[in-house]
């Protein structure tokens, strides 16, 4: 294409800016878990309400990703990226300043909105910046590393800040980073002019799906207090179903739907998203209850807890960025996914047997490593299968759908697991009662993974060879030419 060295350097600097934005968003999803007990003590959260510190961020993030990606197409991805990052940074300030539960939850919700707006268009910008196949692969690898890096250092950074200063600094740290990234984005990212909003953005669809999913999680969280058959539970559940059905009806009739329903005719798209809902729901439970077990049962401080999660994060990053591509090329994405799910399931079997007098090396670390290796293998394979049949005009929305199902699976799965765990532990739990609750949550997570395995066997098909773009697909494998998005 004949680009000058200066232009090449500018593109890689722009990539660094985009990856820094992605790192911020992923870091914030993982940094909070370690600080939850400290936040609970300072602001008086109950065990049931504590989950809303996580879900208040995840629900708007997941619900708005599809709309945010569409807004980037219509208004220009640079403008949307900077707007989202600015909103995220300002919301981080208010999270740190929070003196009550309501203020923190509202600020976390706004953070989630900013996170969705920031991250939705990053991959699209990267693909636009790097069109040569070899460069594209390197750029996607950098993006994947940023995502994995956020997961790896989140618990550790959260532990260091909570232990050495206080929990509010897990949010304050975003402010200087956000300011620098916004300033660099203004200078390095290419300005795009989209066609404008007009009537193309499906705002009604976004409102329906976000409201429906938020209400669904609220209903699940309230089951432990209100009961399964209470008027409260049944009424709000019915309203959530009405909103989500309304979203499906809207998408079937909208001229430019937020989520074209025809995509679900592909068993790979449908199956991969369902499996991801179950797998991510289980993994969110691992991070949440694993943190609480280390701190409340084994007596770890926040820094020790953060260090305790480093092995799983390193295993995920190492396998997903290095080994998984070779395994998928040799054995096929479907076989690698099934193997990864089996390893994750075995990890949860060990977690479901955690004793009240356990030790990190004997009881926690082996399961930690099984989940890390299994997830690192399963996630890239799952995304390759889900994206394998995508046409150029569908690849963006399918990628957005994967992001959405990931976030919603985490929120709904964690809410469900937390409901059963707190019900099992009781109102004034001892370490033994807490352990029993965590073990029940991990046992239910085994069921999530088992259901994912069944879906993988009956729904997923070998991905077809790549068609045209990029590299040549190998007809003997189910590996598509399109790069995996982590």
From TrEMBL:
InterPro entries: EmrB-like, MFS, MFS_dom, MFS_trans_sf. It is found in: Cell membrane. The chain crosses the membrane at residues 12-30, 50-68, 80-99, 105-130, 142-161, 167-189, 201-221, 233-250, 271-294, 306-323, 335-354, 360-385, 397-417, 437-460. It is a multi-pass membrane protein. GO terms for molecular function: transmembrane transporter activity. Keywords: Antibiotic resistance, Cell membrane, Membrane, Transmembrane, Transmembrane helix, Transport. It comes from the Bacteria. GO terms for biological process: response to antibiotic. The keyword Flavoprotein does not apply. Its main location: membrane. GO terms for cellular component: plasma membrane. Residues 14-464 form the Major facilitator superfamily (MFS) profile domain. It holds the Pfam family MFS_1. This is MFS transporter. It comes from Streptomyces purpureus. The lineage of its organism: Bacteria, Bacillati, Actinomycetota, Actinomycetes, Kitasatosporales.
């Amino acid at each position: 294409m004949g680009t000058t060295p200066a232009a090449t350097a500018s593109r890689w600097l722009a990539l660094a800016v985009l990856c820094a934005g992605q790192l911020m968003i992923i870091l914030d999803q993982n940094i909070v878990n370690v600080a939850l007990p400290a936040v609970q003590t300072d602001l008086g959260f109950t065990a049931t309400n504590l989950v809303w510190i996580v879900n208040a961020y995840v629900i708007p993030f997941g619900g708005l990703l599809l709309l945010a990606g569409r807004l980037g197409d219509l208004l220009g991805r640079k403008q949307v990226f900077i707007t989202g990052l600015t909103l995220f940074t300002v919301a981080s300030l208010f999270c740190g300043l929070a003196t009550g539960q309501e203020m923190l939850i509202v600020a976390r919700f706004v953070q989630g909105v900013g996170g969705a707006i920031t991250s939705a268009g990053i991959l699209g910008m990267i693909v636009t910046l790097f069109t040569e196949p070899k460069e594209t692969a390197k750029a996607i690898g950098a993006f994947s590393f940023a995502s994995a890096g956020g997961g790896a250092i989140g618990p550790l950074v959260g532990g260091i800040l909570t232990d050495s200063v206080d929990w509010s600094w897990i949010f304050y740290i975003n402010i200087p980073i956000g300011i620098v990234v916004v300033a660099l984005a203004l200078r390095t990212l290419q300005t795009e002019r989209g066609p404008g909003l007009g009537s193309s953005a499906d705002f009604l669809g976004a409102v329906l799906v976000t409201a429906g999913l938020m209400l669904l999680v609220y209903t699940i969280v309230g089951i432990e207090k209100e009961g399964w058959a209470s008027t409260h539970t049944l009424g709000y559940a019915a309203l959530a179903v009405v909103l989500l059905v309304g979203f499906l009806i809207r998408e079937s009739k909208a001229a430019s739907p937020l989520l074209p329903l025809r995509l679900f005719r592909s068993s790979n798209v449908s199956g991969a998203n369902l499996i991801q809902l179950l797998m991510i729901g289980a993994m969110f439970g691992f991070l949440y209850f694993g943190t609480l077990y280390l701190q409340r049962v084994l007596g770890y401080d926040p820094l020790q807890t953060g260090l305790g999660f480093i092995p799983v994060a390193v295993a995920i990053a190492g396998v997903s960025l290095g080994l998984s591509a070779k395994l998928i090329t040799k054995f096929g994405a479907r076989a690698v996914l099934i193997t990864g799910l089996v390893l994750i399931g075995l990890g949860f079997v060990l977690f479901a047997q955690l004793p009240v007098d356990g030790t990190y090396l004997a009881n926690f670390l082996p399961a930690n490593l099984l989940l890390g290796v299994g997830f690192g293998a399963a996630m890239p394979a799952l995304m390759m299968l889900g994206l394998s049949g995508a046409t150029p005009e569908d690849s963006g929305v399918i990628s957005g759908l994967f992001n959405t199902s990931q976030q919603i699976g985490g929120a709904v799965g964690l809410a469900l697991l937390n409901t059963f765990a707190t019900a099992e532990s009781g109102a004034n739990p001892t370490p033994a009662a807490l352990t029993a609750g965590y073990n029940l949550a991990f046992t239910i997570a085994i069921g999530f993974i088992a259901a994912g395995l069944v879906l993988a066997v009956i729904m997923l098909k070998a991905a077809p060879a790549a068609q045209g773009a990029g590299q040549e697909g190998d007809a003997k494998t189910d590996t598509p030419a399109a790069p995996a998005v982590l």
